[in-house]
């Protein structure tokens, strides 16, 4: 019985994707740690900082389906609804 192994470039691509996901998820999850220092060091109140963080999180969540569609669509020559 022979086992097929993935080409080396696919493993590097997968590892790169994992690293990018690790960094972006880490930045998203630790955003709350910076709220108190931001409020203490600036003239902003927590009521002014919270909506900015909420919009950032919402934008990130809404953009994910579009970002996931682009590589799939670019293989067909259309990205995010533009093109074919």
Please give the count of helices.
3
DSSP strand count: 0
Distance between the termini: 43 Å
Taking the sheet with the most strands, its summary is: none
- Poorly predicted runs are none
Radius of gyration: 19 Å
Strand content: under 5%
Oligomer, anyone?
single chain
What layout of secondary structure does this protein have?
Elements: H1 8-29, H2 35-41, H3 46-74
Provide a brief overview of the structure.
The protein has 84 residues and is mainly alpha-helical. It has helices at residues 8-29, 35-41, 46-74.
Keywords:
3 helices; mainly alpha; 84 residues; single chain
Structure characterization notes:
The protein has 84 residues and is mainly alpha-helical. It is 69% helix and 0% strand. The chain is elongated, with a radius of gyration of 19 Å. The model has no long low-confidence stretch (mean pLDDT 78).
């Amino acid at each position: 019985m022979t086992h097929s192994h993935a080409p080396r470039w696919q493993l590097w691509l997968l590892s790169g994707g994992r690293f990018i996901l690790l960094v972006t998820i880490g930045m998203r999850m630790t955003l709350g740690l910076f709220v108190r220092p931001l409020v203490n060091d600036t003239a902003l109140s927590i009521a002014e900082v919270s909506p900015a963080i909420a919009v950032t999180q919402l934008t990130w969540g809404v953009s994910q389906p579009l970002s996931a569609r682009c590589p799939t669509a670019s293989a067909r020559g259309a990205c995010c609804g533009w093109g074919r």
